[in-house]
Write a structure and sequence with these properties.
The chain is α+β, with helices and mostly antiparallel strands. It is built from eight helices and seven strands, in the order βββββααααββαααα. It has three domains: about 1-45, no CATH class; about 70-145, no CATH class; about 155-190. It has a three-stranded antiparallel β-sheet with strand order 1-4-5, with no helix packed on it. Strands 2-3 form a two-stranded antiparallel ribbon. A two-stranded antiparallel sheet has the order 6-7. A hairpin with a 2-residue loop joins β2 (about 10) and β3.
Length: about 200
């Protein structure tokens, strides 16, 4: 908030307190507030209440994570400064008009299509957009399998385990063969990732 004017100090409970008038940049309301050690709030509180009223996903509500999923999806597609923009926005992947500027519609679709806080959103077709017919919620481990740049597939996982258990090939040799880290091979062998069905 922007400092407008410092007011006279007041004695409250045997302590002198400094007050000032501030202008909220979001609602243009002028409020009287105690000065604190250089720290200022970004708004008078209107942004928090607006968030709760508009989306019904206040800080206490677990659905806040779903709001973050929506915001991150928009960042990847439209913010050129986002580190993941090159994988989404540069590839012309966008969010459908229904979801782009309407979080409540996205939230309704998500809750009706299996969203839980331990799941992530995934596009079924990696070259297509974020839209109801192309999205689903899956566990993070399954999403990692479906990445475009993934070096492994189910056949290679089967082969890694066969080489290790049946042919007694050392882990470092398997690492070299498949060009993945030793720790990754270790997790595959111990069924911590790519779990056997």
């Amino acid at each position: 908030m922007k400092l407008i004017k410092k007011l006279k100090t007041k004695k409250i409970d045997n302590y002198y307190r400094a007050f000032a008038l501030f202008l909220c940049p979001y609602c243009n309301k002028i409020i009287k507030k105690q000065l604190s050690n250089g720290r200022r709030n970004k708004s008078c509180g209107c942004m928090q209440s607006k968030f709760k009223i508009k989306h019904g996903d206040g800080k206490i509500n677990k659905r806040l994570k779903l709001y973050i999923v929506w915001k991150n999806m928009k960042q990847r597609c439209y913010n050129k400064k986002n580190p993941y923009y090159k994988y989404y926005g540069e590839r012309k992947i966008v969010i459908c008009d229904e979801w782009k500027n309407d979080y409540p519609k996205f939230k309704k679709w998500a809750l009706n299509n299996g969203y839980r806080d331990n799941l992530t959103i995934e596009r079924i077709n990696n070259d297509s957009n974020y839209e109801p017919s192309n999205c689903r919620f899956i566990i993070l481990e399954e999403q990692a399998r479906n990445k475009r740049n993934n070096k492994l597939n189910l056949f290679k996982i089967f082969l890694i385990r066969k080489l290790y258990y049946d042919y007694k090939i050392k882990r470092k040799n398997i690492t070299w063969l498949f060009d993945v880290s030793s720790s990754h091979i270790c997790r595959i062998i111990n069924n911590k990732i790519w779990i056997k069905e």
